[in-house]
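Researcher: I'd like a structural prediction for the single chain below. Treat it as a standalone chain; there are no partners to consider.
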Amino acid sequence: MILDKRILNFLVIVVLTTITFSWTFFIFHLSFDITLVVSVIILRMIASSLILKDYSLSWSKATQKTFLIKSFVYIVPFLLYAPYYHGEFRFALLASELLLYIFTINFLMYFYYYLINRNKVVKTKQVVIYGAGKAGIKLEEEFVNSEYKIKYFCDDDKIVQGRSIDSIRIISPSELENKLTNKKYELLVIAMPSVPKKRITEIYEELHEYFHEVQILPSLEDILRDKDFSTQLKDISVEDLLARHPKDLDTNIIESFIKNKVVLITGAGGSIGSEISRQCKKFGAKQLILLDHSEFNLYQITDELKNDNKDINIVSVMQTVRNIDYLDSTFSRYKPQIVIHAAAYKHVPLVEDNILEGISNNIMGTKNCIDVAIKYNVEKFE
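Model: Treating it as a single chain, here is the predicted structure.
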């Protein structure tokens, strides 16, 4: 049988108020006064029923706001019974009981929340998070229910070194290297989306040999705020290490080039094409024509861009650049002003083992795109 939340709430008030008053009377060397206790219990029940739906608050889903609500709800009746009983009981006694009650009920609520929501996943892998800022802390929260156990935080800021986050130490880069001498961990996460690429490269060169895998968050301007950071982690790539510093790029020129234009991107679902698609969306393209022969890759980039901005005009074309007739129909229908050609096989050893496919896609596919772009007077072909 499941008891109504209101009944359970009233039971907690009765039992806890009785206990806190018993302890307070004992501390003040006074006899237990049933009249006072019953009066306070009734007022607390009324307050819990009428103020902010306190009686219905879920302990298993408690937040910081829940604790504040609990405190406020029980302060209100105190403001009523404290003046009434002031001549009969010392104010210090009534205030002490209130503080003990608020502390106890919030502690019990947090303890219950911890028991219900504690991690039940067996930790089989160890991860080090480089960056103890907001991004690192958010990742720490998200890793709670994963197979990864956070061994250390590492940070360049000397002010935070030596401190801890949820009992996890924040150590310096030099101390981390010393600890990794005889140990290789599964994962290093570089959670520093706002640092220059140069620093990312330095961290990678110093530490990658001590980890089986190195992952990184997107840059601050590309990170999706409404999604879990852990789902946005990606393997560090050559592009991450060699990318030009933002100061080398004139964003005003890029925006004037892209804004309010119809842009067609071939290979839009690939590693390079998908990033080009994100940047074209960012710089205000009027319409994005995403062309890719991979259903899965095309779906992923389309879904990502539409979720990030539901108003953007995106057309998904599942098509290969090797078929010039299909390309012709696409160009005829959408009249792109800019074509960015990224549909090419880029992994050299793989292409060397599949020479005919490489020629067909990289050479003939590129020729098809150029021919169709010329036919339909495309303003710019990249």
